[in-house]
Amino acid sequence: MSAEVKVPGQTGLILNEDLLWERGRQGRSAMSLPESGVPKASLPAEVAGDGPDWPDLSEQQVARHYTRLSTWNFGVDTGPYPLGSCTMKYNPKINDALADLPGFVGAHPLLPAEAVQGELSLIHDLEAYLAEIVGLKATTLQPGAGAHGELCGMLMIAAYHRHNKTRRTKVLVPETAHGTNPATASMCGFSEIQVPLGSKGYLEYATVEKLMTDEVAGLMVTNPNTLGLFETELHKINQMIHDRGGLVYGDGANLNAVMGWADLGRLGIDAVHINVHKTLSTPHGGGGPGAGPVAVSQALVPYLPGPRVVKEGDSYRWEVDLPLSIGRLHGFHGQFRTLVRAFAYILTMGADLKRASELAVLNANYVKEKLKDLYDLPFNQSCMHEFVFTNAKQEPHKVSTLDIAKRLIDLGFHPPTIYFPLVVHSAIMIEPTETESKEDLDAFIAAMRQVAEEAKNDPDILHRAPLNTFRQRLDDVAAARRPILTGDMG
Ligand SMILES: *Cc1c(COP(=O)(O)O)cnc(C)c1O
Known about the structure:
Layout: E1 9-11, E2 14-15, H1 20-23, H2 59-71, H3 93-99, H4 102-105, H5 117-134, E3 138-140, H6 146-163, E4 170-174, H7 180-187, E5 191-195, H8 205-211, E6 216-222, H9 234-243, E7 247-251, H10 264-267, E8 271-273, H11 276-279, E9 294-296, E10 308-312, E11 315-319, H12 336-349, H13 352-371, E12 387-389, H14 401-410, E13 417-418, E14 428-430, H15 438-457, H16 459-464, H17 476-481
Parallel strand pairs: 4-5, 4-6, 6-7, 7-8
Antiparallel strand pairs: 1-2, 3-9, 8-9, 10-11, 12-14, 13-14
Helix pairs in contact: 3-12, 5-12, 6-7, 13-15
The structure holds pyridoxal-5'-phosphate.
């Protein structure tokens, strides 16, 4: 612990913050209780001992510590957050307020169906709305995230093939796929066949057709793909996969681009997860909780996880007699309050969901067009809700994609996604979302233009950025290999 006195402010309102362990002083406490009248009893040997070395702190120290830390955070409520693939859009607070209704918060998951008819009707209706939005037949709300939805979908596809007594051991996965796709295929016992990207940035029928054999269980496809491009040949590809006995899993992470515009059922998708924390307004970025409901075509309805809510007359009950179901995927009924937010968002938006997708696509194209003179655009065409630049025009000045991202922090913007998708060298993946105003988009464009100018004229600034933050450029490798967890910076 250092003896020197630090002033609280360093740059304006960014306050110095020691760890609580460094602030603790023996004997401080956040409470004072009257002396107990009950004699002391000692704990059993297994649980006795000194316990963790918690610091002694006053209530005020704890309150100020966490309040100050909260001001270090950057979130969608602070400013634009154009993190490609993640759909970091603003989430209306009404959805939180509705998820906080005491009836939802207080409902115990083991209550009998008669006592939770309201919750069951929400589950029933939300499943129907989600199926309607993607154009499929039925939905399960159990999966706890997109990746968990993939697991659910691929387990259903495996169960379908098992039931139909066809032995299929491989899955086609495009090389633009999110890493969770091949990982999921592998967890479900399939081996992955990577499908190379076509020259225009989307899958080509001829390529997929050559790889589709009777050992292939199906295709896992993201549409629009992670380059922000609509899979133009997907309808034909999916028909061919079905003709040869396969099924198609859709990664729905990019649904924000196509709500009300693309009917995934008619496109030939058999199962799709919906990242409600991306598309349907749940705050995310801190690790959750999210939810990844999965909607399915008729072929997969019998395999949906159970139990399922069914409506009989005016009441709802749990159906447990589901002989082909893959079983339970989640304790109880999924991330319920996250699902309440999605339900509230869908009801408040109604047909404007279509408008949200339209504006998400418009905003992305606006930003792309305003910047493509200064940044390399490997697939130069209309995009959906996001697009991918590279640092090819900054590379001659020895400016990396990471340098560009770090400098944006100085200028007040959360950086875009970088180095993903892997098929594009040094990718910068920008997704502005529909909730940013034109002024905020213009400010982001101005910041990106300033960075491109600096790359030419003053690349050293970019190599050292961020310069205006509490901590400057970190040594990522040392941070991962030799983390200092005690706060003692030596
Ligand atoms: C976010 C994302 C996933 C994984 O979803 P989680 O909800 O984070 O588990 C899968 N695929 C793509 C394309 C994504 O963007």
